[in-house]
Amino acid sequence: MYFDSYDCASFVIRGLNQLYSYGAEILPNVHLNYTRINIYSYEPELLGTYDQIVQNQTLHQDFLNFYRNFDSKKPSTGEWIKSLINIYETFFLSRRFYLYYNNVYWYMKLKQPTPLKISFNEIPITSLLKTK
């Protein structure tokens, strides 16, 4: 493993714990679970900070195009479908990924045949919270 595993649910858990500290409660009929995605790559290549990336026009444009596919603010279904196709091409055809970790960006050439593993954890987030 090149990087520590990052669990996006930890952000949600920290936020919910803070809300709990102010007296908030989660309704009993709300069930919060999370999904985890593991990305498998060869040794990552350090690209540097964003300021360093913009100095290389080709890399900068590729970088912007890559992250644009993950933008959740798509105005139409057609744009969503186009982004999903582009994400598929990125992961399974060109097998590349740009990762932001420890305040710098990394290029990751993804492994074959399976660059991704998605696991659906049925662990309720509420069981991980510090309740009163």
TrEMBL record:
<comment type="function">
    <text>Exhibits palmitoyl protein thioesterase (S-depalmitoylation) activity in vitro and most likely plays a role in protein S-depalmitoylation.</text>
</comment>
<keyword id="KW-0325">Glycoprotein</keyword>
<dbReference type="GO" id="GO:0016798">
    <property type="term" value="F:hydrolase activity, acting on glycosyl bonds"/>
</dbReference>
<dbReference type="GO" id="GO:0005765">
    <property type="term" value="C:lysosomal membrane"/>
</dbReference>
<dbReference type="InterPro" id="IPR026138">
    <property type="entry name" value="CLN5"/>
</dbReference>
<dbReference type="GO" id="GO:0007040">
    <property type="term" value="P:lysosome organization"/>
</dbReference>
<dbReference type="GO" id="GO:0008474">
    <property type="term" value="F:palmitoyl-(protein) hydrolase activity"/>
</dbReference>
<comment type="function">
    <text>Catalyzes the synthesis of bis(monoacylglycero)phosphate (BMP) via transacylation of 2 molecules of lysophosphatidylglycerol (LPG). BMP also known as lysobisphosphatidic acid plays a key role in the formation of intraluminal vesicles and in maintaining intracellular cholesterol homeostasis. Can use only LPG as the exclusive lysophospholipid acyl donor for base exchange and displays BMP synthase activity towards various LPGs (LPG 14:0, LPG 16:0, LPG 18:0, LPG 18:1) with a higher preference for longer chain lengths.</text>
</comment>
<dbReference type="Pfam" id="PF15014">
    <property type="entry name" value="CLN5"/>
</dbReference>
<protein>
    <recommendedName>
        <fullName>Bis(monoacylglycero)phosphate synthase CLN5</fullName>
    </recommendedName>
</protein>
<comment type="similarity">
    <text>Belongs to the CLN5 family.</text>
</comment>
